[in-house]
Amino acid sequence: MNMLFAGAKLALFIGARLAVIRRDDIAGIPWPDYLDLPGGGREGDESPLACALRETSEELGLNVPAEAVSWGKRFIEDDGDKWFFAGHLPQEAGGRIVLGDEGQSWQLMAPQIFIAHPKAVPQFQTRLALFLSGTAGDAFEV
């Protein structure tokens, strides 16, 4: 399962709401000032899930246990495969969120608001909608 991939994202539900990061508003980065989900590029030989969990810790200060992630799907892209995961933590976990050194701010929002928002990263809107539709995920190592 430790196949080649470029990065991973995590749709992290805190209770019923989604943890969302507003990206930095800096020229030269993809999707400046857009709403995004925690995640990013692979480091070393980490697994897709380890990548998503490390990035979530760096960006939101939350150490999400692998067992909290219930769904994952691989997406084949020209610049390398990407994984999209979904997981849940209890509502109380929101009180432990601390924004890391990337992004302008964070918020918890209803997933349907993220999906419909005009300034959310489009591919993650689509992937979140796929998860919420009940589409089966792919096998991944926990």
From TrEMBL:
<dbReference type="InterPro" id="IPR020084">
    <property type="entry name" value="NUDIX_hydrolase_CS"/>
</dbReference>
<dbReference type="InterPro" id="IPR000086">
    <property type="entry name" value="NUDIX_hydrolase_dom"/>
</dbReference>
<keyword id="KW-0378">Hydrolase</keyword>
<dbReference type="GO" id="GO:0016787">
    <property type="term" value="F:hydrolase activity"/>
</dbReference>
<dbReference type="Pfam" id="PF00293">
    <property type="entry name" value="NUDIX"/>
</dbReference>
<dbReference type="InterPro" id="IPR015797">
    <property type="entry name" value="NUDIX_hydrolase-like_dom_sf"/>
</dbReference>
<protein>
    <submittedName>
        <fullName>NUDIX domain protein</fullName>
    </submittedName>
</protein>
<feature type="domain" description="Nudix hydrolase">
    <location>
        <begin position="3"/>
        <end position="131"/>
    </location>
</feature>
